[in-house]
Amino acid sequence: MAHTITLIPGDGIGPEVSNATMRVLAAAEVDIHWDVQEAGAAVAEKRGITLPDEVLASIRKNKIALKGPIGTPIGKGFRSVNVTLRQALDLYANVRPVRSLPGVEPRFEGTDVVIVRENTEDLYSGLELMIMPGIAQSMKIITERASIRICEYAFDYAERLGRKRVTVVHKANIMKLSDGLLLECFRKVAQKHPRIEPAEVIVDACAMQMVKNANRLDVIVTENLYGDILSDLGAGLVGGLGIIPGANIGSEAAVFEAVHGSAPDIAGKGIANPTALIQSAVMMLQHIGEHSAARKIERGLLTTMECGTRTVDLGGSASTEEFTRTLCDAVSRA
Ligand code: ATP
Predict the structure, then answer these.
(1) Active-site positions?
(2) Which end of the chain is more exposed for a tag (fewer CB within 10 A), N or C?
(3) Residue 297: what pLDDT?
(4) Ligand 1 atom showing the smallest separation from residue 69 Cα
(5) What are phi and psi of 72, to 5 degrees?
(6) 188 Cα: distance to centroid of ligand 1 (angstroms)
(7) Which pLDDT score, from 0 to 100, does residue 253 have?
(8) How many CB atoms lie under 10 A from the CB of residue 163?
(9) How far apart are the first and last CA of the chain?
């Protein structure tokens, strides 16, 4: 079956890793027509906006998008494209599987934890004000509706993927009302899922547990900011930002993107690791029912990593091009 998918190449290393990902998908013989849309810094320079209306319209029409990283110009009054996209399309669940890959030197062997991050509220509400000179205020918004919805997503995900436990990560001992509300919602939803063990961990203790024994947490469900920070911690555990994929899921659309940013320090040097976006594309294939192509890419990735073709960020010497070529060969044979 042919699929029309929105592709946003993005900024910095975005075009390089997007190009590599499209080649790998072609090697897996999935029939995709790419509806390429520009967003981010490049459009801001040309048109003074970072997210043209046609990008949102394209995603609304196609329902699925693969997105490269987009940086937010600092201090020019631009709102983050990532946050705007998530809020405009109500992509409420950000799913980030943190898994070790063979051949990549991890901090710990066999890490396998999934972070389900609430994507639409918390301190990302964008509500900030200067109360008076020298005093700034940021508003953390937590609602019952979003908390129930994200907890339900996490428990459903755990059931679907055969996981054992869902751990809510919070700071309700300090933020008794906001984080307390999340906790209350979590307990309500947990009662409806007796096959999954519920667990509760305070965010600082969670940071330690992630380093000592991440797998005990199994599936984490948490607020926007804690999820953001814990994802980078997770990336550090399994070899770096270059390999962690992500999916932003809503009821009307889904946008798949790597956890890493635009990495302007290495943009254009041909050394970016495309694995994170490729693994995001694997999640996308699973989402659209292309399971056989997804498995082919996963097998290809394992073979490529095991035979030692690694990019610089993972301690190897392969360029983006060499890595992509080797992976495409492995996927064609898988
Ligand atoms: P942004 O402002 O868009 O968030 P950033 O550089 O601040 O960009 P990241 O892009 O997330 O933040 O990455 C931090 C560092 O990790 C980068 O400077 C880069 O060296 C490295 N890095 C991130 N992604 C990759 C990748 N795919 N391949 C290789 N190195 C990467």
Answers:
(1) 124, 171, 204, 228
(2) N
(3) 97
(4) 3
(5) -105, 120
(6) 38
(7) 97
(8) 18
(9) 20
Residues 235, 111 contacting (CB under 8 angstroms): no
Please spell the DSSP secondary structure of 237-250, one letter per residue: HHT-GGG---EEE-
* Residue 233 Cα to ligand 1 middle (Å): 14
Strands 93-99 and 112-118, how do they pair? antiparallel
Split at pLDDT 50, 70, 90, the class of 227 is very high
Burial class (CB in 10 A: 0-12, 13-18, 19+), 37: buried
**Best of 82, 266, 275 to mutate for ligand 1, by most ligand atoms within 8 A of CB?**
266
Q: Cα Rg for the chain, rounded, in angstroms?
A: 20
The tokens for 133 are 């000179």
Among 69, 76, 89, CA closest to 44: 76
Ligand 1 closest atom vs CA 274: 27
Instruction: Give the Å distances, CA to CA, from 65 to 50, 255, 320, 322.
Output: 17, 5, 22, 26
CA of 57 to the centre of ligand 1 (A): 28
Residue linked to tokens 């804690």: 226
Measured distance CA(188)–CA(178) in Å, rounded = 16
Which residues have CB under 6 Å of ligand 1? 13, 17, 69, 71, 241-242, 260-266, 272-273, 276, 313
Q: How many residues does the chain have?
A: 334
Closest ligand 1 atom to 258 CA: 27
Helices (H), the chain: 14-27, 41-47, 53-62, 81-88, 144-160, 178-191, 203-213, 224-238, 275-287, 291-306, 320-333
Q: Which residue has the tokens 């948490």?
A: 222
SS3 of 129-197: the string is EEEECCEEEECCECCHHHHHHHHHHHHHHHHHCCCCEEEEEECCCCCCCHHHHHHHHHHHHHHCCCCCE
Phi, psi of 246 (to 5 degrees): -155, 155
* Gap between the Cα atoms of 225 and 53, Å rounded: 27
Q: 272 C-alpha vs ligand 1 centroid, how far in Å?
A: 9
pTM, entire model: 0.91
